[in-house]
């Protein structure tokens, strides 16, 4: 496949924004490019969005794929639903794919988005051609749970002050220069909106986190123990200095997923696609455009 990246100046927020009406409200997303469908799924921190996570890579991927950045309900962009933002996210993706008439896609998921993409690869394998995750999945083997990054996030959603936001953001990255005043103010304004904050508290507030940890320790087969059932070729990408889902979380998925491979990026935290942008894009693009991958594209 010949690389023909789309000029970034042509891919503004407004020019790529689309809407899809579903039976659970309007889903908003960004779209650019032509070719096999590639869906990008964002993470879950306060003030997060698909555009903030992936707009910097949209031009490159749009040169090879019909690239779709989905905005999950509950984060202030797509219409909210009565579902828990994380638990309802897999069904949201299926609604999105069905609404656009997409049978089989490549998925890239950051953090929560990686968990959602992994869930779909397990439960609806016929819909997932290739899977790329950015941190987010697996299980801590050596690092404590909840991790340092999750504890900092809980501190903020319990007490949404500017100092707590700054501490959380600084825990997300290796390169502290990325935490600019502009980023802080942007995340503070969006992350403290009533709906966004309620969503964050439902996932990362003190009581919610206790519930999630207890549920993970309860009976039944945890998702990390089912990773061996994933049939899609899978690329795990990880920041060596990730303080939210520490690198030891990658060991089980790396070993368990039959067609899984792991690439670790130095000097990067939880936002690998931003901190190691060019290296990450190169690795992911090579994975998605291998001849054997392209031959079975839908």
Automatic annotation (TrEMBL):
One of its GO terms (molecular function) is hydrolase activity. It comes from the Bacteria. Transmembrane segments: none annotated. Keywords: Hydrolase. InterPro entries: AB_hydrolase_1, AB_hydrolase_fold, AB_hydrolase_sf, Epox_hydrolase-like. Residues 36-276 form the AB hydrolase-1 domain. PANTHER family: HYDROLASE, PUTATIVE (AFU_ORTHOLOGUE AFUA_2G14860)-RELATED, MONOACYLGLYCEROL LIPASE. This is Alpha/beta fold hydrolase. The lineage of its organism: Bacteria, Bacillati, Actinomycetota, Actinomycetes, Kineosporiales.
């Amino acid at each position: 496949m010949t690389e023909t990246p789309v000029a970034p100046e042509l891919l503004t927020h407004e020019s790529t924004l689309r809407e899809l009406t579903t039976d659970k409200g309007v889903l908003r997303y960004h779209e650019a490019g032509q070719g096999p469908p590639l869906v990008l799924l964002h993470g879950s921190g306060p003030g997060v969005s698909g555009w903030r996570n992936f707009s910097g890579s949209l031009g490159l991927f749009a040169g090879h794929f019909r690239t779709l950045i989905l905005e999950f309900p509950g984060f202030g962009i797509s219409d909210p639903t009565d579902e828990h933002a994380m638990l309802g996210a897999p069904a949201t993706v299926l609604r999105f794919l069905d609404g656009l008439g997409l049978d089989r896609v490549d998925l890239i998921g950051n953090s929560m988005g990686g968990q959602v993409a992994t869930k779909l690869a397990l439960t609806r394998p016929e819909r997932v051609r290739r899977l790329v995750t950015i941190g987010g999945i697996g299980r801590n083997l050596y690092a404590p749970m909840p991790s340092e990054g999750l504890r900092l996030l809980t501190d903020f959603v319990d007490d949404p002050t500017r100092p707590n936001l700054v501490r959380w953001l600084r825990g997300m990255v290796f390169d502290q220069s990325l935490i600019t005043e502009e980023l802080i103010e942007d995340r503070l304004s969006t992350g403290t909106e009533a709906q966004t904050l309620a969503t964050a508290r439902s996932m990362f507030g003190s009581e919610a986190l206790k519930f999630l940890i207890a549920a993970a320790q309860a009976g039944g087969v945890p998702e990390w123990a089912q990773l061996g059932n994933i049939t899609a070729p899978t690329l795990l990408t990880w920041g060596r200095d990730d303080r939210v889902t520490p690198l030891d979380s990658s060991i089980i998925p790396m070993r368990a997923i039959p067609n899984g491979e792991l690439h670790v990026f130095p000097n990067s935290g939880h936002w690998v696609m931003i901190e190691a942008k060019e290296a990450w894009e190169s690795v992911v693009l090579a994975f998605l455009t291998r001849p054997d991958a392209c031959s079975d594209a839908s």
